[in-house]
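Subject: Protein record for review, amino acid sequence with backbone structure tokens
Category: Structural biology, sequence-to-fold work with a learned token vocabulary.
Format: Residues in single-letter code; tokens as whole numbers, each standing for a residue.
Body of memo: The sequence and its backbone structure tokens, given next.
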Amino acid sequence: MSKSPKQGRLPVALSFRPADDRLARTAERSPDFDLETVTLARLINFVSKGLANAANGGLKAHGLNHAAYAVLVMLYGSADFTLTPSQLVDATHEKSANITRICDELLKVGLIARSFDANDRRRVQVALTQAGRVVITRVLPDMVQVTQGSFIHLSAKERAQLNHLLRKVIDGQEQLA
């Protein structure tokens, strides 16, 4: 679906068309509306939700959801399989209360353990248990396949370019914070 340059709209997937049409209408009604930037933001959000939904589909068979998987992956990728809750917040971009809830759930099923730092008893450590390592190594191949499917229409060069551009967007967000 191509849009004329006069409309200032980029071609998008059919599933995004209703949002695209509404954003264009908003731009027509409000001259100060930045259609291009808002469309990019909505596309990123749309892709993010789509990735999470696809992941949730694959994770359901393992008794996990995307947020819990993100915590497990970040713990698995840490040097000693251990992070603090605030490091998990930074690594997953989840809210602190949600990290607490997710960790509570993972703790109940034995995939993580909580302990106090030996040097600072106020500091909590979250560690991936052996059972958690088994689960994440079993889940990773499925998630790689799901994720790759979302990017199947991008060449290696396009994936590298998207990686670069999204990191620039993150840099802009961090400057605002």
About this structure: The first strand starts at residue 82 and ends at 83.
